């Protein structure tokens, strides 16, 4: 966001004393009007306050930095705050005073890897507590532009780290839980904060081969829209009832998102019943004209955006040009009123106009920020997100008692990582525990020598640090290489061109392998897929861990995992592709299914051999699955399903039940993944998904303990999406897989039948 950077720096140094003040409905200028009458519906109250404004005043309210209207007692309001994984730097947020820091949880890609929805809910509740506390102290707004729920379509995408991964089902479950935790708390009368599902729609390219996100036109088939790109937004809007969505920079099939009546009006409002407002990404009204050249005058630009339903402009295009649009009659005042009624309705629902005494959320304060519980949860989340990908001969965990008087060397560019583990959209963390510090903390009461050498930087080819690293490795009993990438490689505005492990790191790993006394351990930080085949295949590498960007306690979480204080149970929320993937498909190709120029995307469609698969992850213990074989095949006629099930969410047959037993030597977590494999034959020339996730559950089991998990199977999981977006019931055999076990088959009988 070019706008964002400028504002960011301004706001770090200015404390906005206006944010956090509220209109006075007791004795202020509005107190006698319907806006202050709590017995009225929020919509009526919002319409009332808008009706009190002059045209010029209204125009000042169409942008995220909304001016005060002193005549009405309306304070200045900054609509743009951020909280991707904790309250974060943004125009609406100012750290300082009593609130120098906010909890910095692991990045969303890590939360995806936990496959633990109750964890997501707890984190979201703490973020919204802290967000409200910041607001109450005048240090944040009430509207937070989070979450990012675009599908992580291509491993090169610089912002995949902000999402829970590549799967629409996982992303939908995540967003449902997250929005509940952010927007709803103990007080049912009010929104706790207003969240914002972004970036709507089909946004997942920053800048590739000379085309950036401001100019990119995502050509998306109806099939991919319905099957892949829209479901998380549908869940966010329809089921979780988010208060706002953000239209994206890119165009969708020729029409810039913020001017796109079809996706904003027809889909989001009419079909998904959006009850809230649409905000443009920052600068994304201006780019309708200036980048997409979809319009050629400012008055037409204002008109297409407002008419499409872009209610609020992050930026200043509306404040500068709406009067011109009125003068040139491309819009009428009612267009402005509609937009403001939607935005002010959310303010009313937030309790902005109501007395503070009656609102529990208004009592949250600095004592609710960076609490002991939040610190614990942040550590727990990081631990739950760590994915163990290789562990030859049980090289991990380390036995702390067996390592007395031994030396452990931490080598590599992320061994002493701190801010790097915050990924992007971060705030000021209360502390940052690097792996080095984590190892020191965990071994402090033992005589174990922990030493460190950086060896090399993330990508810089300079090898001058190699010699010291190799010397250290030679004299150490255990050597851990910690590498990966950072925001200089993957970030907002910046996609990757290579998904290889940076060359310099590979060279250092190769040299370390030659001198280590015991096989090397490798730890990778990244928000995305890196070709780890070398480490995976090498006999000299004993273990491999992927840990995303694990937040404020990431280093301690890692140490806890490597010493067996915590038994890892995270699973990859993405496919780890071979390096050659980037040559096999253009980043502009939005198609999920394979073609002659596309090997297919994500575990659902990728036809090549992954280095690691979606859902991969090991444990220090073993789990056994058992299920009843009473009815291994159930038959359904398509005709009867058509008759009996009008709703996609209706359950088909009985839920699948599986008993999970911990058959190993230590307690641990298993993530149970339930997939359906549809008939593997083309239908209307379309390749079916290889498999499709329809349920997941993370369970904790002590040694020899068993638990039963069950997964309802609904109509949606049986439907095939055709090229035109229509949904069908196709005859054939649908295999139900729990983990890698085929436990049941559904035999659908009859003729292909259109469902919707
Ligand atoms: C590790 O990083 C911290 C924070 O950036 C720094 O203060 C410390 O000196 C570093 N430690 C070493 C051994 O380089
Ligand atoms: C730990 O090992 C390093 C590197 O060999 C050495 O410089 C340091 O003195 C050792 N520390 C202790 C406390 O033995
Ligand atoms: C990338 O850009 C180059 C130079 O403009 C062009 O020749 C090439 O076809 C582009 N590749 C893709 C996949 O669009
Ligand atoms: C799971 O185990 C319980 C207790 O042993 C048993 O009653 C139940 O039938 C089992 N369920 C399945 C699906 O095997
Ligand atoms: C069900 O079938 C599987 C695969 O044939 C077998 O391993 C398992 O023991 C059977 N379960 C029961 C409860 O009979
Ligand atoms: C999921 O997260 C919650 C909240 O932190 C935690 O209490 C629970 O133990 C986790 N579940 C598993 C199976 O690890």
From TrEMBL:
Residues 1-21 form the signal peptide. InterPro entries: BXL, Fn3-like, GH, Glyco_hydro_3_C, Glyco_hydro_3_C_sf, Glyco_hydro_3_N, Glyco_hydro_3_N_sf, Ig-like_fold. GO terms for molecular function: alpha-L-arabinofuranosidase activity; xylan 1,4-beta-xylosidase activity. The keyword Signal applies. One of its GO terms (biological process) is arabinan catabolic process. Residues 670-742 form the Fibronectin type III-like domain. Keywords: Glycosidase, Hydrolase, Signal. SMART domains: Fn3_like. Belongs to the glycosyl hydrolase 3 family. This is Fibronectin type III-like domain-containing protein. It comes from Adineta steineri.
């Amino acid at each position: 966001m070019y706008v964002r950077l400028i504002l960011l720096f301004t706001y770090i140094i200015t404390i906005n004393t206006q944010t956090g003040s509220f209109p006075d409905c007791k004795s202020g200028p509005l107190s006698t009007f319907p806006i202050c009458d709590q017995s009225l519906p929020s919509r009526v109250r919002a319409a009332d306050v808008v009706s009190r404004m002059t045209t010029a005043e209204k125009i000042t309210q169409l942008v995220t930095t909304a001016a005060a209207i002193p005549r009405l007692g309306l304070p200045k309001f900054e609509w743009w705050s951020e909280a991707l994984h904790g309250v974060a730097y943004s125009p609406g947020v100012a750290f300082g005073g009593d609130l120098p820091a906010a909890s910095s949880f692991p990045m969303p890609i890590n939360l995806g890897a936990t496959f633990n929805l109750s964890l997501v809910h707890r984190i979201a509740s703490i973020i919204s507590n802290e967000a409200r506390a910041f607001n109450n102290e005048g240090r944040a707004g009430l509207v937070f532009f989070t979450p990012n729920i675009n599908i992580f379509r291509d491993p090169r995408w610089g912002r995949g780290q902000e999402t829970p991964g590549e799967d629409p089902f996982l992303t939908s479950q995540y967003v449902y839980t997250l929005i509940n935790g952010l927007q709803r708390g103990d007080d049912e009368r009010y929104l706790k904060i207003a969240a914002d599902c972004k970036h709507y729609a089909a946004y997942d390219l920053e800048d590739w081969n000379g085309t950036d996100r401001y100019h990119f036109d995502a050509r998306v088939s109806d099939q991919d829209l319905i099957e892949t790109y829209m479901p998380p937004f549908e869940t966010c809007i329809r089921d979780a009832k988010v208060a706002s969505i953000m239209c994206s920079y890119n165009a969708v099939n020729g029409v810039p998102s913020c001017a796109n009546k079809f996706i904003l009006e027809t889909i989001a409002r009419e079909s998904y019943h959006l009850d809230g407002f649409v905000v443009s990404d920052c600068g994304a009204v201006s780019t309708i004209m200036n980048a997409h050249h979809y319009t050629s005058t400012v008055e037409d630009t204002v008109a297409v955006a407002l008419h499409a339903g872009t209610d609020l402009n992050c930026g200043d295009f509306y404040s500068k040009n709406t009067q011109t649009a009125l003068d040139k009659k491309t819009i009428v005042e009612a267009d402005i009123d509609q937009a403001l009624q939607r935005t002010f309705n959310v303010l009313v629902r937030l309790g902005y106009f109501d007395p503070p005494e009656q609102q529990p959320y208004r009592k949250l304060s600095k004592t609710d920020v960076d609490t002991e519980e939040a610190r614990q949860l942040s550590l727990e989340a990081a631990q739950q997100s760590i994915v163990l990908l290789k562990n030859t001969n049980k090289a991990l965990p380390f036995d702390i008692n067996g390592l007395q008087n031994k030396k452990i060397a931490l080598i590599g560019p992320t061994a002493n990582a701190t801010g790097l583990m915050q990924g992007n959209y971060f705030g000021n963390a209360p502390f940052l525990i690097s792996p080095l510090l984590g190892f020191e903390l965990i071994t402090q009461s033992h005589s174990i020598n922990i030493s460190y050498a950086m060896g090399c930087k993330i990508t810089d080819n300079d090898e001058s640090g190699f010699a010291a690293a190799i010397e250290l490795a030679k004299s150490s009993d255990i050597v851990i290489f910690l590498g990966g990438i950072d925001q200089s490689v993957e970030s907002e505005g910046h996609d990757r061109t290579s998904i290889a492990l940076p060359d310099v790191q590979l060279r250092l790993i190769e040299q370390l392998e030659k001198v280590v006394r015991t096989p090397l351990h490798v730890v990778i930080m990244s928000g995305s897929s890196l070709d780890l085949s070398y480490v995976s295949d090498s006999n000299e590498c004993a273990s491999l861990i992927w840990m995303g960007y694990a937040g404020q306690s990431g280093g301690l979480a890692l140490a806890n995992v490597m010493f067996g204080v915590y038994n890892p149970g995270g699973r990859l929320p993405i496919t780890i592709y071979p390096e050659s993937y980037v040559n096999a498909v253009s980043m502009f190709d939005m198609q999920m299914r394979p073609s002659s120029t596309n090997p297919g995307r994500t575990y659902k469609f990728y036809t090549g051999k992954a280095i690691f698969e979606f859902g991969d992850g090991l444990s220090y213990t073993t789990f056994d699955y058992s299920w009843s074989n009473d009815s291994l095949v159930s038959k359904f006629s398509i005709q009867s399903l058509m008759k009996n099930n009008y709703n996609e969410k209706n359950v088909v047959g009985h839920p699948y039940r599986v008993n999970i037993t911990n058959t190993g030597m230590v307690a641990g977590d298993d993530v149970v993944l339930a997939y359906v494999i549809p008939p593997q034959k083309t239908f209307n020339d379309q390749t079916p998904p290889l498999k499709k996730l329809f349920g997941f559950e993370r369970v904790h089991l002590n040694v020899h303990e068993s638990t039963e998990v069950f997964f309802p199977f609904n109509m949606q999981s049986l439907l095939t999406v055709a090229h035109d977006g229509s949904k069908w019931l196709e005859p054939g055999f649908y295999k139900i897989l729990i983990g890698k076990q085929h436990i049941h088959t559904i035999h659908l009988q009859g003729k292909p039948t259109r469902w919707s």
